[in-house]
Amino acid sequence: AEEAAEQLRLYRRDPDGWRGCRSTGEVAVSWRPSAEFAGNLYKGEGVLPASPQNVWECIKPVAGGLRTKWDQNVKDFEVIEAISDTVSICRTTTPSACMRIISPREFVDVVVMKQYEDGTMLSAATNVEHPLCPPQPNFVRGFNYPCGCFCIPVPG
Question: Domain residue spans in the chain?
């Protein structure tokens, strides 16, 4: 979990190579080739007219959290094992897509939540196997490389 958090911090600090691919009035999405796997990294950025704490409540990875209510790509989120107050093993499921051509997915990750001195909040995750969460029928087991969300306070 700590390695995933550090990898996300490195991505955030390194502005090189990101190319814009989509943009609306609220969100800009960029990509760049990954150095860890054969594929691309993606990041979405936006400024929300809300306090960092309210935004964090919407995105933080906790059982019973708000993410399943607003994110159509997250069907369920459960904590398999709480390692500490900030580190847990979690299972996330996604619904089928494209008229059920794409099967529902499940992801098992070790997740860490951090808060930094400047008020930035981070959730970082990466794939893990756990004996309490074997692959479930009717789901394709997905694999996450280091991924997560930053909630960064902006002046005003």
Answer: 1-151
Q: Give the list of residues 6+ apart from residue 136 with CB closer than 8 angstroms, or none.
A: 106
The H-or-E segment that residue 55 falls in is: helix 52-59
Q: What is the pLDDT of residues 130-150, one digit of tens each?
A: 999 999 999 999 999 999 999
Rounded Cα gap, residues 153 and 156, in angstroms: 9
Give me the CATH code for the 1-151 domain, please.
3.30.530.20
pLDDT tens profile 10-57: 988 888 889 999 999 889 999 999 988 999 999 999 999 999 999 999
d(CA 10, CA 107): 23
At 83, phi and psi to the nearest 5?
Answer: -80, -40
The proportion of the chain whose per-residue pLDDT surpasses 90, expressed as a percent, equals 85
